[in-house]
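Example record

One chain of 164 residues, shown exactly as stored in the release files.
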Amino acid sequence: MSTATLNAPAILSPEEILKHWQGHRGLTRRVIEAFPEKELFEFSIGGMRPFSQLALEAVGIATGIDGMAYGNWTPFEELEAKGNAIKTKEELLAYWDEVTEKINAEWSAMTPERFRARENSWGFFEGPVIDILLYFIDNEVHHRGQGYVYLRALGIEPPKFYER
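Predicted structure tokens for this chain:
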């Protein structure tokens, strides 16, 4: 990589990246809200997991902000245990909001240099922090799409995907 490449202006600032990510997170939160409580935890199609489990995976992964920002990766087993303890939509939304606040609080550590740092997120994704973050967003969007299918199958109009 040339010095000119390293010093090239960013396409998005860290603040714009945060706004983009939080836009996705806000939309996924509205998808969670759209589910009736029982169906959130029980409804599935074709053997896929219920949306509560998909949302818990996405929010658990988002707790990786500490890993991305500081290299402190909470053991994934701890995150899974926290998710397994959640049994209501209210608890899921509260956890979602808690992680949203944590992301906002820790974001100042996400400097352009930090985005280029290499990390290993829980042993399953290694690379520059920006690639890890994009994986986090892609994973959430993928699971949110499954939630849209579930809502439509339940006869519920999902939130507009472009209103982030």
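Notes: The chain has one domain: 13-153.
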